[in-house]
Write a structure and sequence with these properties.
The chain has about 110 residues and is mainly α. The protein has helices at about 1-15, 20-35, 45-55, 60-95, 100-105.
């Protein structure tokens, strides 16, 4: 949600979109609603931002810049998720006391 809000403000600055109270309210509502509607798959953010770009008056050329940024962010995010998945499983299993702590300490 924060990433989407930052991109909306960035493109409003870059393309000198007139910003008023109604525009900000629309941006906040769209950001909140579309963030929850976003499926957790790579590239889904582009569809959401395309809807927002159309509603908020951004030119279509901003989608190319966003596509590049989205590929970089998605790649980093996916890599970090893969890296931390094992640690998350260990922490959750430890919270439910399903791990043999002594066996882990011997490793």
């Amino acid at each position: 949600m924060l990433y989407l809000a930052v991109m909306v403000i960035f493109f409003a600055e870059k393309y000198q979109t007139p910003v008023n109270a109604g525009w900000l309210l629309t941006a906040m509502i769209l950001t909140a609603l579309l963030t929850y509607a976003c499926p957790p798959i790579p590239g889904s953010f582009l569809v959401i931002f395309g809807v927002m770009a159309k509603q908020l008056g951004f030119p279509e050329e901003c989608l190319m810049l966003l596509a590049s940024a989205d590929m970089i962010i998605d790649g980093l995010s996916s890599g970090l998720c893969c890296l931390l998945r094992d640690a998350e499983l260990v922490f959750e299993a430890g919270a439910y006391q399903e791990l043999d702590q002594d066996a882990l300490r011997k490793l």
